[in-house]
Amino acid sequence: QLCLAVALLTAFSSATFADEQWLTFPGQSGPGKGKRIVLVSGDEEYRSEEALPQLAKILSKHQGFDCVVTFSIDPDTGTIDPNLHTNMPGVQALESADLLILLTRFRDPPPDQMKPFVDYFNSGKPIIGLRTATHAFEIKKGPNRKYSWDSKVPGWEGGFGRRILGETWVSHHGDHKKQSTRGLIAPGMESGPLVRGCDDIWVPTDVYGVRLPLPGDCRTVILGQVLSGMNPTDPPVKGPKNDPILPVAWTKTYQGENGHVGRVFTTTMGSAVDLENESLRRLIVNASYWCLGMEDQIPPKANVDIVGEYRPTDFGFNGFRKNHKPQDYFPDQWPK
Q1: pLDDT 10s digits, 234-264
Q2: 236 phi and psi angles, rounded to 5 deg
Q3: What are the start-end ranges of the E strands in the chain?
Q4: What secondary structure does DSSP assign to 247-276, as a single string?
Q5: Could you tell me the sign of the dihedral formed by the alpha carbons of 84, 90, 92, 96, in that order?
Q6: Tens digits of residue pLDDT in 31-87
Q7: pLDDT for 333
């Protein structure tokens, strides 16, 4: 029995730490068994390097999905550096992904690291975009310039964010770090599978500005009520910030170059501290099922319990934990 335990531990560890530049979480039991989700982190402000490993743990342990998490890595030290826009090792995992969950900001990867994204988008496979994914890329030059958040390429105005997710970077609508967000289920969505068990959404990040109406077949799922302070009990602000109340989560579809139509779920919530809210975690898990065409398997209240230790850092520039490698977020450890 001891030998078997050691063998299992060795196998699990080798799968998890196959490469120190990214993390792999084998799926346990659950409806997601056999499906692979790749979660790509890389933003300077909202601590995606902390949020996405926790989300991957939830999806793998409670829902059964195989998950890979990638990071912005300093090639000289092998440590996570969210301020580095040009190195995203491990994104080749997208070649076998069934779903992409993206939380990046203004990334400009080299062509060999951008290619897996381009191939994935061309395939029309499903995508979940969190928070700054609306401005995921800032491609300075070359043929991939059309994916940049500020693209003016005909047919790709607003880049990946506007064309595929539904919106690019516009503005802070709520007062950043002073006004938090209450998520309200949009009229007509109350009985839908995406919002099952999501009856108490509150996050400390502010509402992002979006242009109305959202393009194409976008359908609002959650509206973001701007609160007057940074506590869930604070009242809504009065005036134009809540008239109208802007979408903070919506669905749409996009068509890949191969003709396949993929499902998209976008939310401008999703920082590491936002994920402390159980209903938001459940909304993202439900969206994972929906994007994969598995909405009939969304339970009344999906298990989204935190796995291991989770002490997320508040959002802000240059606030990331320095000199840490990806494995510091696995499985129950947390950087000191």
Answers
A1: 999 999 999 999 999 999 999 999 999 999 9
A2: -65, 150
A3: 22-25, 36-42, 66-70, 99-104, 127-130, 171-172, 181-185, 201-203, 208-209, 219-226, 246-255, 261-267
A4: EEEEEEEEE-TTS-EEEEEEES---TTGGG
A5: negative
A6: 999 999 999 999 999 999 999 999 999 999 999 999 999 999 999 999 999 999 999
A7: 67
pLDDT at 13 over 50: no
Detail the DSSP E strand segments found in 186-243: 201-203, 208-209, 219-226
Residue 122: φ, ψ to 5° = -65, -25
pLDDT at 2: 40
- Nearest alpha carbon to residue 128 among 211, 40, 200, 187: 40
What lies within 8 Å, CB to CB, of 144 at 6+ separation is: 111, 114, 118, 137
- Gap between the Cα atoms of 61 and 100, Å rounded: 18
CB atoms within 10 A of CB 283: 28
**Residue 160 reports pLDDT greater than 60:** yes
The Cα 150–Cα 27 span in angstroms is 37
What three-state secondary structure class fits 25? strand
Token pair in block for residue 30 = 């659950």
DSSP 105-158: -SB---HHHHHHHHHHHHHT--EEEEGGGGG-B---SSGGGGGSTT--STT-TT
For residue 332, the one-letter residue type is D
pLDDT higher than threshold 90 for residue 4: no
Q: Are strands 261-267 and 127-130 parallel, antiparallel or unpaired?
A: parallel
Read off the pLDDT of each residue in 17-41 and give the average, rounded to a whole number. 90
Dihedral class, residue 145 (left if φ above 0, else alpha if ψ from -120 to 50, else beta): alpha
More confident residue, 335 or 61: 61
